[in-house]
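Annex B, item 7. Sequence and structure tokens for protein A, then protein B.
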Amino acid sequence: MVEMVGLLHRAGVRMVPGTDGFDGFLLDREFELWRDAGVPNLDILYAATLGAASVNHHDKELGSIEPGKLADLALFEGDPSKDISALRRAAWVMKDGAVFDPAALYGQVNIRP
């Protein structure tokens, strides 16, 4: 899979990450595999945000932080543009206007990211 992702990216094929996994950590792993395939971190972040919204024809209301758009936000320990694995270290999450502490949530369900 890793080799194919690299070939598709270099050929200019538009790709959108996704998983059928339940816990959410599989998507983090997929980003790391894309990186291992040679896809630059900024391209991975674009594919997961505005790229995905565009493919689904929702880029007018989702996918980037702009006035008038809907936004769920996350802050990470580290810079995902330099280290895509930083996406595994969420420090703060806002979903539908509610703020969550990932460390507290992980502890409640015995998960160690």
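Protein B:
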Amino acid sequence: MPKIKIPKYSPRLLDILKKNGITLKDKISVEEFEREVCRFMDKNKVLHLGTSYNDIPRVTPLEYKHKGFTLYIFSEGGGKFANLRKNKNVALSIASPYDSKKDFFGAKGLQMWGRAEVISAKSSPKKFKECLQIMGIDERRLSGEFNYRVIKIEPHMIRYRNTRAGFRNVVWEK
């Protein structure tokens, strides 16, 4: 069962935020947090996926789709797959654009840690088709020239920030 961890904020930070019309949440249900984060993920479409192997990290910007907290990434190749063959643990971030000069507290984003599974038409045709359906991709439009794959990510931890909405480094853990 997932749980939520809300950090303890310093009185000084709370005072600064209050002067800027912001009140941070001191409690939230798992369901409310999950709805908020899913809405955030709906409004964005690019993540930065971190993979690593032999202490050499790699970060790749990729488009994603999601179903709940499960993320789906469609890709035809790249060094990330070499890393994922050796290490299924991943981290990623998703952030909305903002201008700190206009609204210093307007940053919205999340960090996610999880485990990746690579699914291809060759290795798991049925699972691959299911992923394409979730992502809204018509398999008939895919060229046979590439070995398309889907990276499916199941998170075990998410840290979310949307200070104006009352979320500052709130953590969801499985």
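Comment on protein B: Residues 3-95+106-173 form a domain with the Pnp Oxidase; Chain A fold (CATH 2.30.110.10).
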